[in-house]
């Protein structure tokens, strides 16, 4: 290699989704709006589950954890893209890029594991309703979430430790709005054989294990539903699983659109799938779970009602103070007379 190509990269350039300024402004507005909706929607869902004792069940416990992960996952990529647009820069330092890759892998994989845990929860609820409370004990629920977090962070740590061993030379332009691990790996001028094998073997296992759990859980659920004698029971079971199935299809559909097709260059299809995976999915998850869920709607109504009552009480305080002050003044005037 030439001496120029041996220059160590200290920062990367995030080229974004478009090179035209007008389109970048539109993308900035869309990202800002979707990010605000993501944060507010997921926070409201977490607040509803936390404040309403009726929602202190395994299903809503997992749902609150999923919302927390969605907030973190969206916050890994979107804020940096927004800040870069505001300051007119496309740069991200090497350490920031590695940190972004780590948390991108960790939170993205945690989403995957939590979806499989939620599928298992639905399997127990529908196929073993009489033993549901015993099988899905609070201890087991916490253990499943902790195991999901530990495995996914170990997975991210393994890949980032292999990534930092690589050398990046003069090519530092990432055709994306965040440090995509696959695209950053292609920029390395080192031998990436170990990284590729690890991503295929260990990464494939981490991806396929939750996916197989989801497929097996819903296979048993479908078998149980088809044996139900009443149409009302079938509708109830399907309504319980409908929201989760929608999120699963959106999540895995986006992943397949990004990583599971041969592509020599970054295409428009990759860009759309990446936006769906990193921005759209965390935004729509709380709406998918709440729009058809009476319990969530009821909890949100209670929160809104409490806030209105507290606001009305706050507004009444200065009015009462003014009333009693005027009353004291009138009495003082009467006494003076």
Order of adjacent strands in the largest pleated sheet: 2-1-3
Give the total of beta strands. 3
List low-confidence stretches: 1-5, 332-337
Largest beta-sheet details: 3 strands, mixed
- Please compute the radius of gyration using only Cα atoms: 26 Å
Summing up helix and strand content along with how strands pair, one would put the structural category as mainly alpha
The termini sit apart by 103 Å
Portion in beta strands: under 5%
Q: Can you write the helix and strand succession as a string?
A: EHHEHHHEHHHHH
Mean pLDDT score, rounded? 84
Q: How much helix, percentage-wise, in residues?
A: over 70%
- Number of helices, where a helix is a run of at least 4 consecutive DSSP H or I residues: 10
Shape: globular
Topology:
Layout: E1 11-14, H1 21-51, H2 58-87, E2 91-93, H3 94-127, H4 132-135, H5 138-163, E3 173-174, H6 181-186, H7 193-226, H8 231-259, H9 268-291, H10 294-336
Parallel strand pairs: 1-3
Antiparallel strand pairs: 1-2
């Amino acid at each position: 290699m030439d001496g120029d190509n041996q220059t160590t990269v200290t920062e990367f350039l995030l080229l974004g989704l478009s090179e035209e300024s007008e389109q970048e402004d539109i993308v900035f507005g869309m990202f800002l709006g979707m990010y605000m909706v993501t944060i507010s929607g997921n926070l409201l869902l977490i607040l509803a589950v936390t404040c309403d004792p009726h929602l202190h069940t395994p299903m809503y416990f997992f749902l609150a954890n999923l919302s927390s992960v969605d907030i973190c996952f969206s916050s890994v990529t979107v804020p940096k893209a927004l800040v870069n647009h505001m300051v007119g820069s496309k740069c991200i330092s090497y350490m920031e890029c590695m940190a972004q890759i780590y948390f991108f892998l960790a939170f993205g994989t945690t989403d995957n594991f939590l979806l499989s845990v939620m599928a298992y929860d639905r399997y127990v609820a529908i196929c073993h309703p009489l033993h549901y409370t015993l099988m899905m004990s609070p201890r087991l629920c916490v253990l499943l979430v902790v195991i999901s977090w530990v495995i996914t962070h170990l997975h991210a740590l393994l890949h980032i430790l292999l990534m930092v061993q690589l050398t990046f030379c003069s090519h530092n332009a990432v055709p994306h709005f965040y440090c995509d691990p696959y695209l950053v790996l292609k920029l390395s001028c080192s031998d990436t054989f170990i990284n590729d094998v690890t991503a295929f073997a260990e990464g494939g296992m981490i991806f396929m294990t939750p996916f197989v759990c989801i497929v097996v859980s819903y296979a048993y659920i479908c078998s149980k539903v088809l044996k139900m004698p009443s149409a009302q029971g079938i509708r109830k079971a399907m309504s319980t699983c409908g929201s989760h199935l929608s999120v699963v299809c959106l999540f895995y559909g986006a992943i397949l659109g990004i990583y599971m097709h041969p592509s020599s260059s970054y295409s428009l299809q990759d860009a759309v799938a990446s936006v769906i995976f990193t921005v759209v999915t965390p935004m729509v998850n709380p709406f998918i779970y709440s729009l058809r869920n009476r319990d969530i709607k009821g909890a949100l109504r209670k929160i809104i009602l409490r806030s209105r009552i507290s606001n009305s009480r706050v507004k009444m305080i200065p009015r009462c103070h003014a009333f009693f002050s005027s009353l004291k003044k009138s009495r003082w005037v009467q006494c003076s007379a």
